[in-house]
Amino acid sequence: MNQAIRNAWIATVVLFALLFGAVSYIQVIGARDLNTNPLNTLALTRSLCNDRGTILAGGQPIAESVAGNEACKSKRSYPDGAVYAGITGYYSTNGSQGSTGMERSMNSELTGASDQQFLDRVRQLFLGKQPQGANVETTLDPKIQKLAYGLIPDGVQGYIVVQNPKTGAILAMVSKPSYDPNTVATLDRSAAAAAKAQLDGTQGINLYQNVSGPTGALLSPGSVFKLVDTAAALESGKYNKDSVLPNPAQMSFPGIDYKLPNYAGGQCYTQTQASFAFALANSCNTPFAGIALDLGENKIADKAKAFGIGQDPGDQLHLDYGKGKFPTGLNQPQLAQSAIGQFDVLVTPLQISMLTSAIANGGVQMKPELVKTLRAPDLRVITEYQPEALRTATTPAVAQQINDWMVGVVDNGLAAGAAVPGVKVAAKTGTAELGNGLNNSWFTGFAPADNPQVVVTIAIHGVDVATGAQLTSPNAKKLFEAVLNK
């Protein structure tokens, strides 16, 4: 009798193990193959029409599933669609237009197919229910996001990133021209195709993060790159806070009929020699070109890399990104131009935000964080993302010295429009010439300078100097005030 019971018990355990193994295989290994098999049209249609998890900002949905029609029980809806389009992207329920942005990068989590949700899938399977997707809580602050979006006029190609330098959390990230994701997420195939075709023909739109938007748009940085030169100079041991820099009105090069001019819009012409503080405050070109020629291409390139230019931003962004670059194999005029953020230097607005955040954070660059929490449908926390250091860009002493000089750019220099009463603000502006009288206008800075809480980076592409100046420092002030007065 005991042997019979023992055999029955063993058989039960074996059967349970086989059943659990089969479920595990279906849920973890076989599910993707089965669901993506082109012959399995039923599974494809069902997965496209299932309820997906919600993407939230400040507890409010910015992408959610709503009732569909008889053919497809649900579709995606995007409240304030254009404001968040560069982040959420869109999800085409009928499958005809694919998906972009976070809808694509976090598809496994939103459908419930990620490895972290394995036990949830098993539980739902035993209950006879369809697996449910997780909800994604972003780090975005809806108030700051909407303010930033409204600060870029319609018809202007612009980008704004607002970030916490101590944690890497992104409070706002916007770009224009934008679009309404609802037009592509419609269940009407012909309307979705027409909307997508129109968007594909719009230059600079934030439709695809890998070619546009704050994480992907590759732009000439202009004088904000001088922060890299400054860090390289101080770390070299050849320069210090008391160094006097040659500041000629223009720089000549042997054997070539080319002269690099100094910046004509500030006070650079008043001094033939300059301190770092004066050169940064007035964005003088020739002192920084001279530093690059003195240190050499490799020193500047290495420091650009240390600040993240051309590098991976880490695994907490959950969006495609552009890496930017500092060119190599430069002759003297090209190196001089590159040192002031011209020639073939390319960066994204997010990279400049990260660069500035590293200076604000004592030299440590944090991973840019866009997702705060992943929650199950019952609101149980699946994953809670924690701030993580990405790299050390410079030393605390160098970061503090640059911090002090950036305060002077606001107090005594070209970023005076960003000044906030009662708050010490640190900043750097930049103007990259594109030809035909057009420029990229930049602002990047942080506040309070003595205890940084927020970094603001603004890039306006293809405008004249006056328009750029109106849209950078004064708008940065509004964002600083909005964050600090919450």
UniProtKB/TrEMBL annotation:
State the superkingdom.
Bacteria
Residue ranges of the Penicillin binding protein A dimerisation domain?
A: 52-136
Q: What InterPro entries does this protein map onto?
A: Beta-lactam/transpept, Beta-lactam/transpept-like, PBPA_dimer, PCN-bd_Tpept
Q: Where is the Penicillin-binding protein transpeptidase domain?
A: 158-479
Matching Pfam families: PBP_dimer_2, Transpeptidase
For this entry, the protein name equals Penicillin-binding transpeptidase domain-containing protein
What species is given as this protein's source? Arthrobacter horti
